[in-house]
Amino acid sequence: MTDLASESRNVAAADVVGDDDATAWAACSRCHSVIYGKRFDRQLRVCAECGSHERLTARERACQLFDPGSWEVVDLGITPSDCLGWVDTKPYVQRIDDARALTGMPSAVLCVRGTVERHEIIAAIMDFRFLGGSLSSAAGEIITVAAEIALRDRIPLLIVSASGGARMQEGAMSLMQMAKTNQALADLNDAGILSVSLVTDPTYGGVAASHATACDIVLSEPAARMGFAGPRVIQQTIRQELPKDFQTAESLLEQGFIDQIVPRSDLRHTLARLFDMVHTPPGSAPKAAGPDPVIRDPAALPEREPWSVVEMARHLERPTTYDYVAALVDGFVELRGDRVSGDCPAIVGGVGVLDGLPVMVIGHQKGHSVRELTAHNFAMPSPAGYRKAARLMRLAGKLGLPIITLVDTPGAYPGLEAERNGQAFAISDNLVLMAGLPVPIVAVVTGEGGSGGALALAVANTVLLCSNAIYSVISPEGCAAILWRDRAAAPEAAAQLGLDAHRLLRLGIVDGVLPEPEGGTQNDHPRASAMLRDGLVHALRELLPLDPARLRRERHARFRKFGQVALGDELS
Predict the structure, then answer these.
(1) Residues 271 and 394 in one domain
(2) Which secondary structure element, helix H or strand E, spans residue 122, and what is its range?
(3) Whole-angstrom Cα distance, residue 433 to residue 393?
């Protein structure tokens, strides 16, 4: 266990004042506000004054997460054992007995089965009161068996973590549980079964370095702390003062390690929206849309002055990915972080439902003001953005979710840190990944499609382009600076680059063009969204019947044809 294990002496984070249940009061552990006990319970043990999420027992957690009356404890008959005959200031067997008496639980993990807004799941819920929630062989076995039940019955797995780390009193036997639990999660991954981790305070050591972070999606309660080494150990080792927000959920989100911070009052609904993604009947397709608006004949498109199209594509009021998602996708849950270095705001993504069909939506995010553009780095992704997109696409491939990408970027971020962090490798990895994904992919260039930064989200079965959007190997300004040695020649470069809808469709770079409302998408967001919806629905209805092998084969053939020379001709 880490240095947090000593906290297991606390029965609860909030002290109870008074003996009479009818008049019991509780004191917040953070701000020390005194709260009427029953009111505190109604608030899900969240302090109304400071927002502190006090610790819950495993049973309290089950009551809050599962539908009332729907859950039951799965009695696996698994209890801790003293494999080393351990004695410190007290025999280990005595510590186990004391923990059982305190918690009313046979071990530190409760296995629970029930429904969350009617979705059947199985959960392994850790209880910090039981020897600091430390990972014993019994705790590891319960988590593993819960995963095996999820695998057998093909239902999602939820793991709620609260732990000081591995249980020292079981030596290397405890260490082995890290590998065992992650091995069980790998089996779920291979079978396409969703796993969700909920990090609560605190989650440290061997638990943080195994099942708490190995799930498909990692959620956290506000201010929950998670890390491998505890803060006291780190301070003693490096002899440095740690930042105030060190290892908190808020800093972990910024660093790209978790998907969302979810207040306790929203947890059940958020989990239900995630579980919606994996309860799609076989053969499901989007509901019927209006007529297919996509133009596939270049002759039906007017030839336009390319520079005017460039200016239209860059208009600040054109709908962004967030705008389109809000208009088209129900129950959207944004997923964040690349699990390596950060959460790039230039690419956003998550799961939701498009006309009855669960989908993964990933797109570049610009903004409608300088402030929004700056917050999203002008839609120029860092390597973390492409790695985040790759993580979400792999999850979509695992769960069988169609992928929709919305492309609108001047290009990948050309910065020092981006190069140091492997920008070229991140883009290249996405190109390889998308080529082999087993699910339908539809990409739509909604504004600017700039260079490899755009292509990294556009290796798709079907590529569509909004009629006032552009798609090019380089920006007109960049091309002019290199070839004309004068950025003022950008309009001439735009005319030469073939970046407008008419020429892109004629060359087969895009498969179709989505008409825009009069004056452009910026003039009528609802109409633009309706056009996009109809185009996406028709594209998906064509792709969904295809098996994974054919999807990959057709995607490969789509890109193989560009500049194709037959091998026999090349050698003659």
Answers:
(1) no
(2) strand 119-126
(3) 8
pLDDT, residue 282, reads 56
Residues 6+ positions from 106 with CB-CB distance below 8 Å: 78, 79, 100, 138
Domain membership of residue 114 (yes or no) is: yes
3-class SS letters over 356-385: CEEEEEEEECCCCCHHHHHHCHHHCCCHHH
Q: What pLDDT, in 10s, does the model give residues 513-560?
A: 999 999 999 999 999 999 999 999 999 999 999 999 999 999 999 999
Q: Enter the pTM of the model.
A: 0.92
Q: How many helices (H) and strands (E) does the chain have?
A: 23, 19
Domain count along the chain: 2
Please name which of 148, 59, 67, 71 lies closest in space to residue 109, comparing C-alpha atoms: 59
β-sheet bridge partners, residue 260: 219
Q: What range does the domain containing 235 cover?
A: 53-276
Same structural domain for residues 114 and 190? yes
Domain final position from 246, 276, 306: 276
Per-residue pLDDT of 342-394, as tens digits, reads 999 999 999 999 999 999 999 999 999 999 999 999 999 999 999 999 999 99
Are 123 and 172 members of one domain?
yes
